[in-house]
Design goal:
Layout: H1 8-13, E1 14-16, E2 22-24, H2 38-45, H3 52-62, H4 82-97
Antiparallel strand pairs: 1-2
Length: 98
């Protein structure tokens, strides 16, 4: 079976933080600012992190676990290291012998 390819166009438009948050730029905020009200420009500056439903949709494109801005860090499960995995296996085998 072929490997999954991540969506490169999406990767060029976002930044993934180390904790799994998704940063992005808002549309309509870069040019022709004189015609926009200051209230609208302030609103375009705020909260550049993706919400939960949007992050979930992006997970399918990138084949990677992400978290939205209202999710706790604990929701992003970290893969165990090879040492942790070996220790868990040894513990499980020890429990099975008893």
């Amino acid at each position: 079976m072929p490997k999954n390819k991540s969506h490169k166009a999406s990767l060029k438009r976002i930044r993934l933080t180390a904790t799994g948050l998704v940063r992005h730029n808002r549309a309509f905020g870069k040019h022709l600012r004189s015609s926009k009200s200051s209230k609208r420009l302030r609103r375009l500056r705020t909260d550049k992190f993706m919400s939960n439903p949007e992050a979930k949709r992006l997970e399918r494109l990138l084949f990677r676990r992400l978290r939205g801005r209202d999710q706790a860090r604990a929701t992003l499960k970290k893969s165990p290291t090879p040492q942790e995995r070996a220790a868990a296996r040894a513990e499980k085998a020890k429990a099975a012998k008893k």
